[in-house]
Design a protein that fits this description.
The complex is a heterodimer of chains A (about 170) and B (about 600).
Chain A: E1 8-16, H1 21-30, E2 38-44, E3 47-52, E4 55-59, E5 71-78, H2 82-94, H3 109-121, H4 127-130, H5 132-143, H6 150-169
Antiparallel strand pairs in A: 1-2, 1-5, 2-3, 3-4
Chain B: H1 2-11, E1 24-30, E2 35-41, H2 46-57, E3 64-68, E4 71-72, E5 89-94, H3 118-122, H4 144-173, H5 180-191, H6 195-208, H7 210-218, H8 220-226, H9 229-238, H10 240-248, H11 250-256, H12 259-270, H13 272-291, H14 295-318, H15 324-327, H16 334-338, H17 356-361, H18 370-379, H19 392-395, H20 397-408, H21 410-418, H22 420-431, H23 433-442, H24 444-447, H25 450-468, H26 470-477, H27 479-498, H28 503-509, H29 536-550, H30 565-568, H31 570-579, H32 584-594, H33 598-608
Parallel strand pairs in B: 1-5
Antiparallel strand pairs in B: 1-2, 3-4, 3-5
Helix pairs in contact in B: 4-5, 4-6, 4-12, 4-13, 6-22, 10-11, 10-14, 12-13, 18-25, 20-27, 21-26, 22-25, 23-25, 26-29, 31-32, 32-33
The chains are: A alpha+beta (about 170), B mainly alpha (about 600).
């Protein structure tokens, strides 16, 4: 019974895609505070796994262009070894997590991280990450146009000013 | 336990759950592809469990690997040992027979090619802004705030214009292999065949992630591209809307060609504080302008000449914001200066609803995609409230003027509806009613009115289906149809105030008849001379829509109309014929547009005759 259960630590690397700008600007553009645009990857067996438009991918930990993660969440340990995990990922890649299944809001990297975390450790990833899409979607679509009219408005005013300046300086017009 | 497990292995073949006493629990077994619920005894062993599973999943027992809470379940264990209880989920991996020993690092469809190479190439996926042209040349606008404001506008305009270009660019540059969301933008291009969907998603992401813009701009690749002013100018010119704008307003092309401006704009994008500063300056400058004699008029003129088309151009990209007119009605000089004075409408807010005035005024931040869902409301001025037809939001004066604006500007509606962005947005909303309802609920217009929300929610699927119907869309782009709808609504309002008891009986059958009576401002139709054919089919559809909505939305919209326009207007048609208007088709159209008002129809016919 006392078999050699090797145990591998599992971590979740959380990145903020907006580099902090979401925290600053989200209330401006979305009408409500969003602390970050989260991207996650699961790190196990010395590799970081994530899901993107090209399907499931892996790299060295912290090896994405995002660099160092914003935060690292410890998910515990798993007995699943590399081979088994790879088979699992293969299955996923053929079904749920093909590249074309990527949906920015409903089936994204965080969905993947959540599923993998549950497989490996039985735990889910923090809810503030998985809840993000619905929050943003509802906010963006509700108030996104706030940002849109403003610049054309500004353009209009600018041209008005330009014209005004011209008009005033050349009263003959 | 161990012996029990070993003993069971051989003995307990039938594996009936009652083999060991204990309660039966239902455990969900989940594979990457599949999910099944398996009933097993609480104190069963893993082996027994695997037997069940192998039957269910049609796999050999030794191919099964069970994982729970991070632990691999060994044959000798028991379920309770691992804490597997009723309702919990156990993960299963079915090892393939030819188990690739080196793991699937080669066989994984997940690309390992993502490392390194793709990182920079895929980041320009989202969109950029103008360039950093090192040497400013040409004219520098006099005041800094002006530069900043111009910059901001250019920034945004260009952003919308560039999105498609950059998308295609990124597609060409990037290869398979995404890493996270950033590159998935590029991957999206590869993955999804639907370009428009990509654009839509990118826009969405952009809107939710302003920092991305700065990030993108700092990317050397993007900067290189952007620093080529000719390229940029080319891209700008390529956009037909910009071309239109530039023809009408040469100042715009001057502005776009100003490298100093571009540089400023880019800096502006980097620095949100600067942007805010600029906006404040803008406001200040504006108020200064107003005080200059003659300034206000000039302002208004410029606004109508320039802002409107600019607005439309920008809005088309992002989907329309029809509610901008609602809040800014006092500012939209377009309305009063260009159109005839509309008669004031009867009290739009029926007794039950006194909270609406605040809603309708506050609609400035109406959404872009709820414009997709509010489209039905815009084109369906009925307001669709089975409860009270006069109900607030849709009958607000702001909405009315909006409708008028839309009817006068069919191009606007056309553009808006035909924007591929809009279409795919509507499609995705249609497929996902929950999403749509969520989106709508967050629309500030609905925020204060739960009753309205409920009504909308219930009718939502039908709305969305209607939106999908191309006929419905074409009806909405038909200005006369819009006007007719408006007239209907006005008529209904009148009816409601004048004869409240009459309404229920009128609802289903009387509606087509309403436009012929009621408070129909007769000068309404006169402003649109275009003779786009309102064929009877469209009319039919419109009436169906009306009936359906008025009937509480439950009837499914397929109701036959009670009377075709021809029948309804038979008398009038005859009269027109007698007067010498022999073009029956044109007569019919005119009558429909004017709601059966002969005199107005005659005016229409006379006005549209080629002279």
């Amino acid at each position: 019974m006392a078999q050699n259960n090797s145990s591998f630590p599992v971590q979740l690397y959380v990145y903020d895609l907006s580099r902090g700008m979401a925290r600053e600007l989200s209330s401006l553009f979305l009408g409500r505070q969003v602390d970050g645009i989260w991207h996650t990857g699961v790190v196990v067996h010395g590799k970081e796994f994530f899901f993107g438009g090209g399907g499931i991918a892996h790299c060295q930990p912290c090896g994405t262009v995002l660099g160092q993660p914003n935060s690292i969440v410890d998910l515990g340990y798993t007995e699943v070894n590399e081979d088994l995990f790879q088979e699992y990922l293969d299955s996923l890649a053929e079904s749920e997590y093909r590249g074309d299944k990527y949906n920015l809001f409903e089936h994204n990297c965080n969905t993947f991280s959540n599923d993998v975390a549950q497989f490996l450790t039985g735990k889910t990833i923090p809810s503030y990450i998985t809840d993000l899409p619905s929050e943003i979607l509802s906010r963006v679509l509700a108030s996104g146009s706030f940002a849109v009219p403003t610049p054309p408005l500004l353009l209009g005013w600018r041209l008005i000013e330009a014209d005004m300046t011209v008009e005033l300086s050349s009263p003959s017009s | 336990m161990a012996e029990q497990g070993a003993a069971d292995l051989g003995n307990n073949n039938n594996n009936k759950p009652e083999a060991s006493e204990g309660t039966i629990i239902k455990v969900t077994v989940k594979t990457p592809k599949d999910k099944e619920e398996i009933a097993i005894a609480e104190d069963a062993s893993v082996t027994q469990f695997k037997e069940e599973i192998s039957k269910r999943f049609k796999a050999k027992q030794d191919q099964l690997v069970l994982i729970f809470a991070g632990k691999i379940l060994k044959d000798g264990d028991s379920l309770s040992q691992h804490g597997i209880k009723d309702g919990l989920t156990v993960h299963l991996v079915i090892k393939t027979a030819h188990k690739a020993a080196d793991g699937g690092s080669t066989s994984a469809s997940s690309s390992t090619s993502n490392q390194g190479g793709n990182s920079t190439t895929s980041s320009p996926a989202a969109n950029p802004a103008p360039t950093t042209v090192p040497t400013g040349s040409g004219h520098t606008p006099t005041q800094t705030p002006n530069i900043m404001s111009e910059s901001a506008c250019v920034l945004f305009e260009l952003k919308t214009l560039f999105l498609p270009k950059i998308t295609s660019l990124s597609q060409r540059l990037s290869h398979a292999g995404g890493f996270g969301d950033l590159a998935s933008l590029a991957g999206l291009g590869m993955g999804s065949a639907n370009f428009m969907e990509l654009q839509q998603q990118m826009q969405r992401q952009l809107m939710s992630n302003p920092e991305m813009l700065s990030q993108i701009m700092e990317n050397p690749l993007v900067q290189n591209m952007m620093s080529n002013p000719d390229l940029m100018r080319q891209m700008i010119m390529a956009n037909p809307q910009m071309q239109q704008l530039m023809e009408r307003n040469p100042e715009i092309s001057h502005m776009l060609n100003n490298p100093e401006l571009m540089r400023q704009t880019m800096e502006l994008a980097r620095n949100p504080a600067m942007m805010q500063e600029m906006m404040r300056n803008q406001d200040r400058a504006l108020s200064n302008l107003e005080s200059i004699p003659g300034g206000y008029n000039a302002l208004r003129r410029m606004y109508t000449d320039i802002q409107e088309p600019m607005f439309s151009a920008a809005r088309e990209q992002f989907g329309n914001n029809p509610f901008s007119a609602l809040g800014g009605n006092s500012d939209s000089g377009a309305q009063p200066s260009r159109t005839e004075n509309r008669e004031p409408l009867p009290n739009p807010w029926g007794p039950p609803n006194s909270s609406n005035p605040s809603e309708s005024g506050g609609g400035t931040t109406g959404s872009t995609s709820t414009s997709g869902t509010t489209n039905p409301s815009v084109s369906n001025p009925l307001g669709v409230n089975p409860g009270s037809l006069g109900n607030g939001m849709f009958n607000s004066p702001g909405m009315q003027s909006l409708l008028q604006q839309i009817s006068e500007n069919p191009q606007l509606m056309q553009n808006m509806l035909s924007a591929p962005y809009m279409r795919s947005m509507m499609q995705s909303l249609a497929q996902n009613p929950e999403l749509a309802s969520q989106v709508m609920m967050n629309n500030p217009l609905f925020a204060g009115n739960p009753q309205l929300q409920e009504q909308f929610r219930s009718q939502l699927p039908i709305f969305l289906q209607q939106m999908q119907n191309p006929e419905a869309l074409s009806v909405m782009t038909n200005p006369r149809a819009m006007q007719a709808l408006m007239q209907i609504q006005q008529g209904l309002q009148m009816l409601q105030t004048e004869a409240p008891g009459l309404m229920p009986s009128l609802m289903t059958s009387g509606i087509p008849g309403v436009p012929t009576g009621g408070a129909v401002p007769s000068e309404n139709p006169a402003s649109s001379p275009s003779s786009a054919a309102t064929n009877p089919a469209q009319q039919q559809l419109m009436q169906q829509m009306l009936q359906m909505f008025a009937g509480g939305g439950g009837s499914g919209g397929g109701n036959g109309t009670s009377q075709t326009p021809e029948v309804r207007f038979q008398t009038q048609l005859d009269q027109l014929n007698a007067m010498g208007f022999i073009n029956r088709e044109a007569n019919l159209q005119a009558l429909i547009a004017t709601g059966g008002d002969i005199n107005a129809a005659i005016e229409r016919l006379l006005g549209s005759q080629p002279s």
